[in-house]
Amino acid sequence: MATTLIDKLAILSDAAKYDASCASSGTTNRNSLGTSGLGSTEGMGICHAYAPDGRCISLLKVLLTNFCIFDCRFCINRSSSNVKRARFTPQELIELTLDFYKRNYIEGLFLSSGIIRSPDYTMEQMVEVARSLREDHGFRGYIHLKTIAEADPLLIEQAGLYADRLSVNIELPTETGLANFAPEKSGRTIRKTMADVKYRIDARKDADKSKTAKPSNNAPRFAPAGQSTQMIVGADKSTDADIIKTSETLYSGYKMRRVYYSAFSPIPDASADLPLIAPPLMREHRLYQADWLFRFYGFETSEIMSSATDGMLDLEIDPKLAWALKHREWFPVDINTARKEVLMRVPGLGAIGVKRILSARRQTRLRLDDLAKLTQSLKKVLPFVETVDWTPGHLTDEENLRARFTPPPVQLELL
């Protein structure tokens, strides 16, 4: 077991890399100007996390400990794993966070942990870190706590009073997968904790909106950046259809700010028997693209999966392009007259490109040269659009159109 602070930091920051849900957008703006506090949730920093709006967020991303009493088969820190172990005391982690902030290394803290002694004991330790930072040291930077679903609900409630964002991992997309690979965890318990967090976030928002609520009756601040979760991709035999269906439920039923997909790679000492049904990183990438389509582009899950084979997304092309190739009756669309909802379905046109097109066409009839200036993917767009001086003709229905977008075959080397 590591004994020096530097050794602990090396082990526990490396162990935290498997936690993906650490973007810090969406919280309230706070800073310590004019106060005796420390920190800020605003501005740029030296960081390893990026918010959806492009801001660079500097977070100390670390585990309280990588000791764990659970033996989840997909986890590098499970109880049976032969890894170096370390543990911070709450005071060590508090001092480390403050020291890093004062040196302008970070803007906030992302704290997760293995489970030691019991879920309640571990959650108490994590809450104490956040409480002390806020109350004893006036820390006003960003705090994200990875909560433990099995902990007492009162501890989860306390965590939300100090953290900007809470998250509890859904772990795997199906109950069957969770039972097989993490039998000590309960999907029902995980969902109940998510529901409790959602309820408290909604209660705070309702109190803020109420015009009749007296200041003394307002609900206390609770996780203003909402909640997120993480789902492991590729540890079990769940299909992409299973994963996307679960994600939709999380967004609609629990108002998740974000579902993070974590590509699973087998751990040599215990996971040789775990399946890999697709290259993990590319599969993760395609799932993020599909996630974006049903969250922001108006696609239904059934539409996204209509071009899938056996419930799996196409790994060679992105899911919007796969849908367009299967539904060519939608195309070509006239960029000078098509509605925003239709333009959003054109491969190669993102939300920014569509916004530019809608703005530009108010002033003039757009030509191909104009389109080239408004999008970064003209080659992908061409078979699916019409302009004043361009029509794709038979290109849209070309039998081998897919080949234009897939990488050419590569001759393997013998030596």
Structural class: alpha/beta
Biggest sheet statistics: 6 strands, parallel
Q: Secondary-structure element sequence?
A: HEEEHEHEHEHHEHEHHHEHHHHE
Computed over alpha carbons, the radius of gyration is 24 Å
Low-confidence stretches: 30-34, 38-47
Strand content: 5-15%
Q: How many H/I helical runs?
A: 14
Overall residue-averaged pLDDT value: 86
| Widest sheet, order of strands | 3-4-5-6-7-8
Q: What is the overall shape?
A: elongated
Number of individual domains: 2
Helix content: 25-40%
Q: Count the beta strands.
A: 10
Give the end-to-end Cα distance, rounded to a whole number of Å: 44 Å
Task: Please give the structural blueprint.
Elements: H1 5-15, E1 49-50, E2 56-57, E3 59-63, H2 90-102, E4 108-112, H3 119-136, E5 142-146, H4 153-162, E6 165-167, H5 175-181, H6 187-209, E7 227-233, H7 240-254, E8 258-263, H8 280-296, H9 301-305, H10 319-326, E9 333-334, H11 340-343, H12 351-360, H13 368-374, H14 378-381, E10 385-386
Parallel strand pairs: 3-4, 4-5, 5-6, 6-7, 7-8, 9-10
Antiparallel strand pairs: 1-2
Task: Jot down its keywords.
415 residues, alpha/beta, 2 domains, 6-stranded parallel beta sheet, two-stranded antiparallel sheet, 9% strand, elongated
Structure description:
- The strands form 3 sheets. Strands 3-4-5-6-7-8 form a 6-stranded parallel β-sheet. It has a two-stranded antiparallel ribbon with strand order 1-2.
- With 415 residues, it is an alpha/beta fold.
- It is built from 14 helices and 10 strands.
- The longest helix is centred in the middle third of the chain and has 23 residues, at 187-209.
- The protein folds into 2 domains: 5-229, no CATH class; 327-404, no CATH class.
